[in-house]
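G.,

No rush on this.
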Amino acid sequence: MRMTKVQGKAPTLKRAAVAIVLFTSILIVLPSLLVLLFSGTEEGTGSATEPVSEPDTSEEEESGEPDSEVVVPVYRDAQDTVEEVELEAYVAGVVSAEMPSDFEMEALKAQALVARTFIVQQMEHNSDDVPGDAIVSDTTDHQVYQSAEEWEGGAEERDKINAAVEATAGEIVTYDDSPITASFFSTSNGYTENAEDYWETSLPYLQSVESPWDEDSPRYENTARYSVAEVEQQLGVTIPEDADFTTNKETTEGERVESVTIGEESFHGREIREALDLDSSDFEWQREGNEIVINTRGWGHGVGMSQYGADGMAKEGRDYRDIINHYYQDVDISADHQHMEAFVYHQEEEEQDS
């Protein structure tokens, strides 16, 4: 009986041992089967075999481009809204608004480089009082900007502008490793102006240079007429009957009016230009009866790159680097993205704080 009992337990123990082995095997094999079964659905979004917290950045390191998209908050004046625009799209919008699309490709490239440099410097300093969270407006207070939807030209011209922007993508103009004040204007009087002679702030890379190409501009010369009363009101002076407007006038290195005296009042050339909305501070004026006739040469403040000068240089076979180095002295054209990366980091911090 005892033997029978022992024989009766032996098959039971064997079945138990087999069951334990099978159960253990299932515990070991099942997770692996599940991984094999579902790993294909994770492809392209980070599978369990790839470290999600350490994405592959080799392509970014080779290109030198920032990890995140640089977005420019632009105040749209007409709509009274703030629009977030990707950096290169913003540059294309400035080029399309600021320079004629029929200009030479190298001139458009120079304009793209200047526009990008302007906004990168604005990103760093952002000292202007712009509504909302914007850092720049879409008016002449900064740079005129229009979106692709607002473009009224043809598709071919727009493609040309986009090609100019893409050809200089990521490049900025620097002086001592910092973005320059990338000022530009339409038409010179044959020379650009020293920064200190117009803004009273000296910048070593914004000094007067010759720009003979501008004579082809339709606004190289212009004539404006004002009543004597209008000029007196705008300048806050009384103009004597025998006033000689050709005397008591001093000029700058760029051959614009530095100062002029009317009666007992002295004015800077910029003051006259802005008060009377003249094309340029290079002007000659005279009285004809009850009118003041003013002849100007050039269009704009005259500091930095002349757009018609850039087009003239391009027509002579100069490339955009030649243009930049002519109008801005001792500068570098750099594809260094450290300034843009710093702005992206600052933007991300602000978003996290909010």
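When you get to it, here's the other one too:
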Amino acid sequence: MNRLLQPRTIHRLFLLAAAPFLGMGIWLAAAGPGLTLSLSDEAYPEFNLPAPPAAGTLTERVASGLDKAIGLAGETNESIRKEAELFDKASAEAGRLAKLAASQVGKPYAIYDRRITARLGTPVEEVRSNRITAQLFHVKAQHFNGYALKVKLKSNQAMRMVLGRDTYGGAETTLSAVKRLGAVAGVNAGGFADKKGKRYPLSTTIVNGKYVSGFEASYKDLFFVGMNDKMQLIGGKFKSQEELDKLNPQFGASFVPILMKNGRPQPIPEKWKTTPRRAPRTVIANYKDDQLLILVVDGYDEKGSSGATLEELQILLERYGVKDAYNLDGGGSSSLVFNGRVINKPSDGELRKLPTHFLFFK
């Protein structure tokens, strides 16, 4: 602000100092031919100049001119003062509007965040850093209990997906992956298939922007879900690698089925309504502002007698106001680790070793 005022201050001083001379110049120009200089006829007879006016008359004219110059200078100074006042008022108003605009920048996000948080309840634990904000909630429904982890990613370093022991065909628990890589939270990811003593991720799997075992077109109810280069949740069924590549996937895994699209529940295939009907579940979803919601449901076995149905999860997710939601591997695979400890109650009695994990970093 000082830099802006300095030129204006210089202009004021210059105008005030020069005002008398400017006034004199204006008066001389106005006097024009009527003003003559007194020269001696004897010294310069060739000019044949008229007799000089009386001394009193010249003095009066000069005094009158000076009065006019002084008056003009006063008027100029008053005009400058008024313009300066207007400038000061305009600067103050601009500063006020700038502060108001700055204070309003985060309000839409804050209002939306309060609304979706209120639907989840009161967080029982949270982690905040320049990379991530993660809030843990308890979920209590009529037929099951579970946990919700709402995550705001602030950096592309805040989330990644890893292979078990960083090896294709390797497996480890989510807790092991969290501790090994220094994550603040972790959840199980895609499905798997066992072969010759090794555990391989199911279908299309991407880690660090690369296809682990190539692309496989979606078939039956399989989908791919992961994150793009802008840390936004992407997912669905893809017929070709080119179709998926357009979304710039950085990591992701595959399983069944898709639960929500654009805020609307998707049809549940008949097979997945009964096999099993109820079970421990893991879901990854997103909100309109790209925050993530991880939902993990407890159950004491995989026989269909405990846990949640997929339709019940859809009702819950719709109530929470999520945009898209994908069912991840469940049953004994359901795992939620937060702040160094296992949050859910694994149906196997202990965490299962898995080939893929979504991890979050502080």
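The chain has two domains: 2-104, 109-360. Residues 2-104 form one domain.

Enjoy the weekend,
O.
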